[in-house]
Design a protein that fits this description.
Elements (H helix, E strand, L loop, with lengths): L2 H4 L1 H17 L4 H16 L10 H13 L5 H14 L2 H11 L4 H13 L1 H7 L12 H18 L2 H9 L11 H10 L2 H22 L10 H8 L8 E3 L2 E5 L5 H6 L3 H8 L6 H5 L11 H15 L4 E6 L9 E5 L9
Helix pairs in contact: 2-3, 3-5, 4-6, 5-6, 7-8, 10-17, 11-12, 12-13
C-alpha cells in the first residue's frame, strides 16, 4: 500500500505478507521479485490505499502496461493475486476479465495453421494485429468479429466448426481425473452424474458461505437455488445417449434480476471475445464462434470417458437465445442405472 498513505513500516510489512502469499502459491523467487516490483508500482500510482482500489484504477494501470507492451499474462496474474491477497474484488475482476480466455486468439491462430496451412491462415489475418492479453474486451470482440468474417469467407464451415469444437482454451485435465477414476471404478455413468450434481451445488454453497467470488460472480441463496433447481446446469441431464447441458450464467445474480432480454444476454454470456459487443447491442461476432464454448462444455466428459465426443449447439446467446444449451453425444451402450 502507498507509503504516503500508510507509512513505510506498514507498507513494507504488507509487501512481505504478499511475498509470503506468492511463496505459498509455489511461484519462483524470480517471478515473485517481478510481482513485488509490479505491485509496488501499482500502489505508487494510487491516490488511496490499495485496499480501496477500484476496477477503474486497475484498468488504468493495465492500460499503462499495454501502452508499454508490458501487459503480459504474468503481470496481469500478479495483479489478480494481489486482489486475492487483499480480498479486493474490484482488482480481481478487472484482472480476471482480461486473463479469462486470453490465450484464445493465439490458439486459434496456431490451430488454423495446423488445419488449413499457414498461407491461408495468414491470408485470414491480413491487416489484423493479434491482441495482447491486456487489450480491452470490446476491442478483442471487434477483432474476433473481423477474424470470423474472414474465416467464414475462406474456410469450409465444417472445418471451422471442428477447429472451434476442439476448444481454444488451455484446459487442465487434472480437475476431472477424480471423476474419471470414479467412473472407471463404478462404470455407472448416471450415479457419477448425480454425484457431480450434488458436489457442484455444495461447491457453490461454499462460496456463498465464505463470501467469496465463484470465478467472477457473487453466489447468493437465489443463485444456489437456481442451480439446484436446474439439473442441466448442475452438470447435465442424460436422455438415452445424449447429455444435455446448459451453462451457468456468467453473472447469475444479475441475470436473474434483469428483465430486459438484451441485458440478460449480456449477463449470461461467458465469452470474453463476444460479450462486450452484446453490451453495445450489436451482436457482431458470428454465432459460429459458439462452437468454442461447445468444446469447453464437452471437455470434462472427454476426460472422464477417455475419448473424443461430438457436441451440438441447441441454443446460444449469439444466436439470439437467452441461454447456451448443448447436446453431448455419449458413446453407445452406456447402461442406465436401475
Amino acid at each position: 500500500m502507498p507509503e504516503k498513505a500508510q507509512g513505510p513500516d506498514q507498507g513494507d510489512r504488507s509487501r512481505q505478507e504478499f511475498r509470503q502469499f506468492l511463496v505459498n502459491k509455489q511461484i519462483s523467487i524470480a517471478k515473485i521479485d517481478q510481482a513485488i516490483d509490479l505491485i509496488s508500482r501499482f500502489e505508487q500510482g494510487l491516490a488511496k490505499p490499495a485496499l480501496q482500489a477500484g476496477g477503474d484504477d486497475t484498468r488504468s494501470f493495465i492500460n499503462l502496461l499495454a501502452d508499454e507492451k508490458n501487459d503480459t499474462e504474468d503481470n496481469l496474474t500478479y495483479l489478480y493475486y494481489f486482489g486475492k491477497f487483499l480480498k479486493n474484488n474490484a482488482i480481481i475482476l478487472a484482472s480476471l476479465e482480461l486473463l479469462d480466455g486470453g490465450e484464445v486468439m493465439e490458439n486459434f491462430y496456431k490451430k488454423l495453421g495446423e488445419r488449413i496451412g499457414n498461407d491461408l491462415r495468414d491470408k485470414i489475418f491480413t491487416g489484423i494485429e493479434r491482441p495482447s492479453v491486456g487489450t480491452s474486451p470490446l476491442q478483442k470482440a471487434r477483432i474476433m468479429q473481423v477474424v470470423m468474417e474472414h474465416i467464414e469467407q475462406l474456410v469450409e464451415p465444417q472445418t471451422v466448426r471442428q477447429i472451434l469444437s476442439d476448444c481454444l482454451r488451455d484446459l487442465n485435465e487434472e480437475p476431472h481425473l477424480e471423476d474419471k477414476k470414479r467412473y472407471a471404478e463404478t462404470s455407472d455413468f448416471d450415479k457419477c452424474l448425480e454425484m457431480k450434481r450434488q458436489e457442484y451445488v455444495q461447491y457453490l454453497q461454499g462460496f456463498k458461505e465464505r463470501g467469496e467470488l465463484y470465478f467472477t460472480q457473487e453466489i447468493t441463496d437465489e443463485v444456489v437455488a437456481f442451480i439446484r433447481d436446474n439439473p442441466e446446469i448442475a452438470q447435465g441431464v442424460r436422455v438415452g445417449d445424449i447429455l444435455y447441458i446448459t451453462k451457468i450464467p456468467y453473472m447469475t445474480k444479475e441475470y436473474l434480476a434483469e428483465k430486459d432480454e438484451e441485458k440478460k444476454r449480456y449477463y449470461y454470456c461467458h465469452c470474453p471475445w463476444a460479450r462486450e459487443t452484446l453490451k453495445q447491442g450489436e451482436k457482431l461476432v458470428s454465432a459460429t464462434f459458439c462452437h468454442c464454448s461447445a468444446g469447453f462444455v464437452k471437455k470434462p466428459w472427454e476426460v472422464i470417458l477417455g475419448q473424443k465426443l461430438e457436441v451440438d449447439i441447441l441454443e446460444s446467446i449469439l444466436q439470439g437465445d437467452l441461454r447456451c444449451r448443448f447436446a453431448i453425444h455419449l458413446p453407445e451402450g452406456i447402461p442406465h442405472s436401475g
